[in-house]
Amino acid sequence: MLPSTGRGLFYLAYSGLKILKPIAVQTINRQKLLSNRNKYNTGVFLVSLSIFTSNTKPIDDSEENEIEEEIKSKIKEADLLYKQNKYKEVYNLLKEYEDSSEVEVLWRLSRVLYNISQEHEMRPDEKKALIFESFDIISRSLALDETNFANHKWMSILLDARTAYDGIKARISHLGSVKNHMLKAIELNPKDATTLYMLGLWCYQITDMPWYQRKIASTVFAAPPVSSYEEALEYFIKAEEIEPRFYSQNLLMLGKTYLKLKKEDKARYYLDLACHYPIATDDDHLANKEACELLKKFKTIRRQKEGDV
User: Fold this and answer.
1) pLDDT digits 0-9 by tens, 225-237
2) For 106, what's the count of Cα atoms within 13 Å in the CB-facing half-sphere?
């Protein structure tokens, strides 16, 4: 079912995923003055490099290489912080490049702003502002480089999250575009397990869409998007094959999809894995709770059947 508000079509914070490895950093736009926004931070970033002053002198190769190495170093540090779920620290580290044309920085900024927007303490107005800003950044990053798979991956997430604020009809009207960005991301990086999970979830939710949303979809599309539990299962399985046990929610969805297909033994296997998955993030907690509840229902049904014998 499509959530009405909040996290977007994909019920993900991407908080515990080992998502992306650094890609070669593009050459920085020399003439772009990099901004310094003071969000989530009470300090002031002091730019000491003379290239960021109004009286900029031509940059020689050694200075340019130094800048590129600095950005690479910050991206590496940011990725380590991201794996530790230190989202505000990631933002503070990269925000000085928010107005640059550094694609490898921009999509990471978009990602971390989205993650911050999903934190429980965020007020609705703060959440909305962060999602809108995140969408604007990923839109700019994608315009700069349409061959970067992370741009398409995060555009699919942010497009859905952004259009959720325009109502269910607007959201449904973008379902095809959301999937197309995921497909493009997989075309560019076939080994990204989280995008495969996202595709599986898209297929599952389209198949599981309630009647009133299907009715809306039929007014938006000449041929509304369709899928099947079998197609969803293929993506979930492929994600697990590429990176086993990478995400508690993928294990949960494998169990739920097998339930839909009435393959209870396989469903119990994956639900048990999700139920006992080490909890490190909110997503893990949610997967653990739902999987354990489904397993309890299995046991109750089994006892009832045994009592009838």
Assistant:
1) 889 999 999 999 9
2) 25
pTM: 0.76
**Two tokens, residue 148:** 């970067």
In order, the DSSP letters of the chain are: ---SSSS-SS-----S-------PPPPP-TTPPPP---TT--S------GGGSTTPPPPPHHHHHHHHHHHHHHHHHHHHHHHTT-HHHHHHHHGGGTTS--HHHHHHHHHHHHHHHTSTT--HHHHHHHHHHHHHHHHHHHHH-TT-HHHHHHHHHHHHHHHGGG-HHHHHHTHHHHHHHHHHHHHH-TT-HHHHHHHHHHHHHHHT--HHHHHHHHHH-SS-----HHHHHHHHHHHHHHSTT--HHHHHHHHHHHHHTT-HHHHHHHHHHHHTSPP-SHHHHHHHHHHHHHHHHHHHHHHHHHHH-
- Cα within 13 Å of Cα(239), Cβ side: 30
Residues 109, 93 contacting (CB under 8 angstroms): no
Among 27-41, 66-80, 202-216, 235-249, the least confident range: 27-41
> What does the angle CA 168 – CA 231 – CA 251 come to, to the nearest 5 degrees?
85
Interval 68-97: pLDDT, tens: 889 999 999 999 999 998 999 999 999 999
